[in-house]
Write a structure and sequence with these properties.
Layout: E1 17-20, H1 27-34, E2 40-42, H2 50-54, H3 66-76, H4 80-87, H5 94-100, H6 106-121, E3 133-137, H7 145-151, E4 156-161, H8 164-175, H9 179-200, E5 205-209, H10 210-215, H11 217-228, H12 263-266, H13 269-285, H14 302-324, H15 327-335
Parallel strand pairs: 1-3, 1-4, 2-3, 4-5
Helix pairs in contact: 5-6, 8-9, 9-13, 14-15
Length: 337
């Protein structure tokens, strides 16, 4: 049986590192557990824009030129993470951003941005930015590891997994997402992420399970801190900020032990069988229980997946309208990437 990839890495990571995982898999929880360390920092905003603009950054020209730099940064300000930061009172000046860049190439512009955000989010840091291992928690980067690994040749990747059946329950509770779609995308993202991680090797890629983290938080955190090459703090297991604003863990100030296998009580047998048909091989890979071990694994037809995505887009639009107060604000939010 294949087990989760572990790493013997002890050298200190060269930032950035990336924290990835399927939605509702514990990425926010892990981010705030890691942020307790004085050696680590991740913003509470998810960048999302790095792959998209990596593919188009050449059109902006030489970023040493301040006009070119301004055109790029003006475009980036239209992405969702800047909306998130603005809501939290962070209004970044272009000149400040330019001056914070260690180099005026694309990776240097990204580092300059996070250097500035660190100043706003952590006004009295325990260590200066140049002495920390900074990272970015954007779950959907599961699909972009090869691109990010090329853009940042020293970047490391931490992938947290959760039983797909519990992910399905959690996304349905949080946003109304169709469980079948969640399961199909869980399987696709996980396969891509694992393949990319295996290509990088254990020096740059680490996997851990959400369920193991909740059972023995210090042990699993120790693995991650070792992987990033920083000491495990004495107060490992505490949360730097309240991580969750949705679902059953909303507002929790500590790790909720035993928050696993809810699907056994809350999911109908027919749906459990359907989800296992989409994820069964990966359930075995990651040591999750199977109810139907002889069930062949299948993929969801493209037309059916599209139908679920359209249905979920409507639910997401309604969710954001309620959150933001208007349909126009909800549309702008969902269009910003």
């Amino acid at each position: 049986m294949v087990r989760c990839i572990a790493s013997p890495v002890t050298t200190r990571a060269i930032p950035p590192f990336f924290l990835v995982g399927n939605p509702r898999s514990g990425t926010k929880l892990l981010r705030e557990l890691l942020n307790v360390s004085p050696d680590i920092w991740m913003s509470d905003g998810e960048s999302h824009f790095i792959p998209k603009y990596t593919r188009r950054v050449a059109r902006f020209g030489d970023l040493v030129d301040r006009d070119n730099f301004r055109r790029l940064t003006d475009a980036l300000r239209g992405t969702r993470v800047f909306w998130h930061w603005k809501r939290r009172g962070i209004n970044l000046d272009t000149a400040e951003w330019y001056d914070a860049c260690p180099r005026h190439d694309w990776p240097g512009v990204i580092e300059g941005l996070f250097r500035c955000i660190h100043r706003y989010e952590i006004p009295n840091p325990r260590l200066p930015f140049d002495q920390i291992v900074w990272g970015d928690k954007t779950p959907v980067y599961m699909r972009e590891i090869p691109l990010l690994a090329e853009l940042f040749p020293h970047a490391r990747f931490v992938h947290i997994l959760r039983d797909p059946r519990d992910c399905c329950l959690s996304t349905e509770t949080a946003w109304g997402n169709a469980p079948v779609r969640t399961a199909a995308e869980w399987a696709d993202r996980t396969r891509r992420c694992r393949a990319a991680g295996q290509a990088l090797g254990p020096g740059r890629y680490l996997e851990l399970r959400y369920e193991d983290l909740t059972v023995d938080v210090r042990k699993e955190l120790g693995r991650v801190f070792d992987f990033l090459g920083v000491p495990t703090p004495a107060d490992a297991g505490k949360l730097f900020r309240v991580p969750e604003n949705l679902g059953t863990a909303k507002g929790q100030t500590q790790v909720v032990a035993g928050n696993a296998a809810k699907w056994k009580q809350k999911m109908a047998p027919d749906l459990r069988r359907t989800i296992e048909g989409l994820t069964g091989d990966l359930l075995e890979t990651y040591r999750y229980e199977r109810e139907y071990p002889e069930l062949p694994v299948r993929t969801l037809p493209a037309a059916e997946l599209l139908a679920y995505r359209l249905r979920d887009a409507w639910f997401q639009l309604r969710f954001r309208r309620k959150e933001l107060g208007s349909w126009s604000a909800a549309v702008r939010f969902l269009m910003a990437r």
